[in-house]
Each structure stands twice: as structure tokens, then as C-alpha cells.
Design brief:
single chain; alpha/beta; Aminopeptidase; two-stranded antiparallel sheet
Length: 391
């Protein structure tokens, strides 16, 4: 390299390093001032930080990932409670929905470890427009695009500020190559649907009637998968968030373990939720001429920006979890464009470690109607069938 090019490269390197240094210190200063409630000025905090090691290694380790902000350190007990309360909600859902265009009007053999009837109002409410299943893809996304990490992260994901993800974890070729097909049916349940937050309802839910809540939505999804697609489903309607939403994941864990132990043929676990957004936001999609709630797949990474991997929330099935949601998202984009919001990645685990093929699905929000949420189960059931059978 000649002297002129070297000097230009050196100058540019200094500029980039300066901005990254400033960014890292600004993040730490903001964190300290916010968490400690300090009355010190930013300059005073910066002076104190000047004696600490510059966090360059953290930047280098995550430079190929998705840059996020730092979060505070939490105890295990706090994190367990946060798994329930820190899903996308009205506080951060509005920005997420705007980013996704939702504002206005989201095989192998072996298992993991009673089915209810459809909600009465599900069948009665589907009278306006009959849903037409897409017979062929409407859009094509080349694999070379998906292998571009920047393209993948900005078109398929929203990464919460509490966590980070790298191109090594989100390797599209590797994730899409994982076999999500079900083993041959044996007459035993293959799919488990349950609800960590069974009390989540919709704009016109009837108090005291679970058929008009996310549980009723689960009933309808169960019916579709069994009667239309011939899959064997167990819908568990246990309640874990009554009077104590913050510990719902901890309460649901033992029940999941028992269900999976008693039903070794279960290969798929679906935790069906309803999102929370600002009251002015409605997550409505027009899918093949029918208005319905948009959905969102959700993954916990067992990693926070501040502390890195969380050993006591280890998830041995994380790669398969990510593969399942990505394959579902790709099918949604191909067959039902606009139906699924970007996959949301957050820092904790959300009981997704019990089974490789686990999905956490947010069906609309509190501003959607029951009918809109029920209608969303029709394309979701079709996408599930396509991924789980390889069609």
C-alpha cells in the first residue's frame, strides 16, 4: 500500500474507531444515569468511566450481528418474572408495528420430551368472506438474498434492544436445511397447543367466556389442523396467568414436562398468545381478500446484551427453534404476503427449550376482534401443514 492510501485508511480507521468509542461510552453513560437516578452530569459520569477498560472487545464480538443497546443486570428471579411481562407490548409494540407496516388500519422420528372442540362463535362468525387457501407461492425469495445477513435481519426480524444475534446463529442455509417434517402418524398426538397466557382476550371478548379469548383461537386452530389437514393435535387449556401473570412461564413449565412425558409422540409445541399494542394500533391484514389479524413469531435467545449468554436459561433447542420460525416466516411471505409481521427476537427463553419444533405465536392484539383472530388461524394452519409435511 502506498503512503497516500495508508494515510487515508488510517484516517478513516481513526474516524470509525472514534465514533464507536463515543457510542459505547454514550450507551454506558445513559445506562448509569437512568438506572442509578444519578444527579451527576454526563461529563462527571464520563470522567468516572475513563478509568474503566474500553469495551472494544464487546464491539468486535458483535460487529457481525445486530447492534443493540445495553440493558441492566437482573437477578434470576427478576428474569423469570420478566419472561412473562417482557413480551412486546404497548410500551414497545407501537414502534415494532410501525416498522412492520402494521400501524393504522403482527422430520424426523421421535417426540420432544384432550383435544377441545372449536369455539362456537368461530364457525358462526366466518360468514362475510370465505378464505381461499393459496395453491401456489405468490412471491419468491432467492436463497442468495437470505444468505445476506443484512437482508435477512432487516426483512425477516426485529431484534429487541435487550439482546443480540449474529450471522453465525442466523445462517439461512443451515436453518432452512433443517428437517421440520413430522414422523409418520401413529394415532398419538403430534402437536401440542397451549397458552402460557390463557386470559388474553380481544376487543369484543365476552368476560368469562374462554371461547372468545386466545383459548378459543386455539380451539379453532386445533379443529383446522385435525379436520382439514389430518394432523393429530392435543389442545391444553390449563391456566397459568390467573392473578399472577408474572410467573406464568414458571408455572407452565412442570405441566409441559408432564404432557410431553405422557405423550412422547408430540413433536411440535405451539404457545399461542395475543400481543399488546397502543390503543390506536390495529394489526389487520388483507389475506386473499379476507380481513384478519396479522401474526408474529417470537423467539427467545437466552442472551442479554449486557451479560451475554444466560447459563441458567440454557436452551439446547435454540437452533431448531430459530429454524422452525424462519421456515414458517418464509412460507408466510411466499404464500400469504403481509400476513406475518417480522419475527421478534428477545433475550430470555419462554419455555421454548422443551422441544426442538417450538413456536411462540402472537395472534393480533387487544385491538383486534375475535373474528379477526379466528380468521388468522386459516392461513396459519396451512403454513404449519406445509412446513411440517414438506409441501
Amino acid at each position: 500500500m502506498n503512503q497516500t492510501l495508508f494515510e487515508q485508511a488510517l484516517s478513516e480507521g481513526k474516524r470509525v474507531l472514534f465514533h464507536q468509542t463515543a457510542r459505547q461510552y454514550a450507551m454506558q453513560i445513559g445506562y448509569i444515569m437512568e438506572q442509578d437516578g444519578t444527579e451527576k452530569t454526563a461529563a462527571q459520569v464520563l470522567l468516572e468511566l475513563s478509568g474503566r477498560p474500553f469495551p472494544l472487545t464487546e464491539y468486535i464480538d458483535t460487529a457481525d450481528g445486530y447492534e443493540t443497546q445495553v440493558e441492566s443486570h437482573f437477578s434470576y428471579e427478576e428474569i423469570v418474572a420478566m419472561e412473562a411481562s417482557d413480551e412486546p407490548d404497548a410500551a414497545d409494540g407501537t414502534a415494532l408495528n410501525e416498522e412492520n407496516g402494521g400501524a393504522g388500519v403482527t422430520a424426523g422420528a421421535g417426540g420432544c420430551s384432550g383435544t377441545a372442540t372449536a369455539a362456537e362463535n368461530a364457525a358462526n362468525s366466518q360468514t362475510t368472506v370465505e378464505f381461499q387457501v393459496s395453491q401456489a407461492p405468490k412471491t419468491d425469495i432467492p436463497l442468495d438474498k437470505l444468505n445476506d445477513f443484512d437482508y435477512l435481519i432487516h426483512n425477516f426480524y426485529v431484534v429487541d434492544k435487550t439482546t443480540t444475534i449474529t450471522g453465525e446463529q442466523l445462517n439461512a442455509s443451515e436453518l432452512l436445511a433443517r428437517d421440520m417434517r413430522l414422523a409418520a402418524p401413529t394415532g398419538q398426538p403430534q402437536i401440542l397447543i397451549y397458552h402460557t397466557h390463557s386470559q388474553e382476550g380481544y376487543a369484543d371478548s365476552v368476560p368469562g367466556d374462554p371461547n372468545t379469548t386466545v383459548v378459543g383461537v386455539g380451539n379453532y386452530l386445533t379443529e383446522l389442523l385435525q379436520e382439514r389437514y389430518g394432523l393429530s393435535v392435543l389442545h391444553h387449556t390449563g391456566e397459568y396467568d390467573v392473578n399472577d401473570r408474572d410467573h406464568a412461564y414458571a408455572k407452565a413449565g412442570p405441566a409441559l414436562e408432564q404432557i410431553l412425558a405422557e405423550n412422547p409422540g408430540i413433536e411440535v409445541v405451539i404457545d399461542l398468545h395475543r400481543d399488546g399494542v397502543a390503543d390506536t394500533t390495529r394489526l389487520v391484514a388483507d389475506v386473499n381478500g379476507k380481513q384478519m389479524a396479522s401474526i408474529m413469531f417470537f423467539n427467545g435467545l437466552s442472551r442479554t446484551t449486557a451479560t451475554g449468554d444466560i447459563p441458567y436459561l440454557y436452551n439446547p433447542n435454540l437452533s431448531d427453534n430459530l429454524a422452525f420460525s424462519l421456515q414458517m416466516q418464509l412460507k408466510a411471505k411466499q404464500y400469504y404476503p403481509g400476513f406475518s409481521r417480522s419475527i421478534y427476537l428477545k433475550g430470555y427463553r419462554y419455555n421454548m427449550h422443551y422441544c426442538p419444533k417450538t413456536l411462540l405465536v402472537e395472534v393480533g392484539a387487544q385491538t383486534n376482534t375475535v373474528d379477526e383472530a379466528m380468521s388468522a388461524m386459516e392461513p396459519l394452519a396451512d403454513i404449519l401443514y406445509r412446513v411440517l409435511t414438506g409441501n
